[in-house]
């Protein structure tokens, strides 16, 4: 049994590429709350940004801080933590790795899943925020309901702000460009110069959705091939193929412009 401050849990998950360990709380008798913790990374920014949102597919916040972690009453070390609403489900890419490349019937289900994630994205973007770190582990699919939860908003920014970090594998071209420019910036003047060159808005999140859709539909990473999805998986409808390729436009001005438009496009497949 583990205890972090007043919170108890039986076990935790650790996945490479994520900043935190994650556990479902066993006290005070409810499993509706989850706990992320890290010895080095503070969650006060995520705790602060979550108070601005109220959407059923974005986790509610409960608590954050820094406390001692014990395993069977033996002190391990101090950990930063955040307690938030637990979404039961699976990483969408891992889910399809187990099921295999989707056929025409499963593609119908996949479209419904992605339609569900346009809802919190539309909400977030209308609030003037960008998630900026959409990747498979941050889209939690509950197959029993077909609903995807959008989690880990710790790197979220207001549209037009500087990014706070980047997951290169699922980042948009403009995020990669800004990240590259920021490596040589050491003051506010340099930051302002970067913002004049690169603008990050909701279209960055849509590019990441395109990368995930491509990976699920084909079983391949987009950066490893120049093929369109339909060239790899012939079960993909032409219209869906066009949507994916539009999401993956390098120039953000040519990309599907909003989660609302993406929702309309998917609904027409």
TrEMBL record:
Q: Which Gene Ontology cellular component annotation is one that this UniProt entry carries?
A: cytoplasm
Q: Which residues form the Protein kinase domain?
A: 1-267
Does the keyword Transferase feature in the UniProt annotation?
Answer: yes
Q: From which domain of life does this come?
A: Bacteria
SMART domains assigned: S_TKc
Pfam short name (any one): Pkinase
What does the UniProt keyword field contain?
Kinase, Transferase
Q: Does the keyword Chaperone apply?
A: no
Query: A GO molecular-function term, please?
Result: protein serine/threonine kinase activity
**Name of this protein:** Serine/threonine-protein kinase PknD
């Amino acid at each position: 049994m583990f205890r972090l401050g007043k919170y108890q849990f039986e076990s935790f998950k650790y996945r490479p590429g994520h900043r935190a360990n994650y556990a479902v709380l066993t006290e005070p008798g409810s499993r509706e709350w989850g706990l992320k913790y890290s010895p080095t990374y503070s969650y006060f920014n995520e705790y602060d940004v979550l108070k601005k949102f109220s959407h059923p597919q974005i986790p509610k916040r409960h608590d954050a801080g820094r406390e001692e972690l014990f395993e069977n009453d033996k002190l391990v070390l101090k950990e930063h933590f955040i307690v938030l609403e637990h979404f039961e489900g699976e990483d969408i890419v891992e889910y399809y790795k187990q099921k295999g490349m989707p056929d025409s019937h499963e593609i119908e289900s996949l479209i419904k899943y992605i339609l569900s994630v346009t809802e919190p994205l539309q909400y977030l973007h209308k609030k003037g925020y960008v998630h900026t770190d959409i990747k498979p582990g941050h889209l939690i699919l509950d197959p029993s309901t077909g609903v995807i939860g959008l989690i880990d908003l710790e790197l979220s920014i207001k549209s037009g702000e500087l990014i706070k970090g980047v997951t290169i594998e699922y980042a948009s071209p403009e995020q990669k460009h800004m990240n590259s420019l920021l490596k040589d910036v050491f003051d506010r003047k340099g930051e302002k110069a970067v913002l004049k060159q690169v603008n990050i808005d909701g279209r960055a999140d849509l590019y990441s959705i395109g990368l995930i859709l491509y990976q699920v539909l084909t079983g391949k990473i987009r950066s490893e091939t120049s093929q369109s999805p339909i060239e790899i998986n012939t079960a993909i409808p032409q219209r869906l193929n066009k949507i994916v390729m539009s999401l993956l436009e390098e120039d953000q001005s040519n990309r599907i412009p909003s989660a609302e438009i993406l929702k309309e496009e998917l609904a027409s497949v």
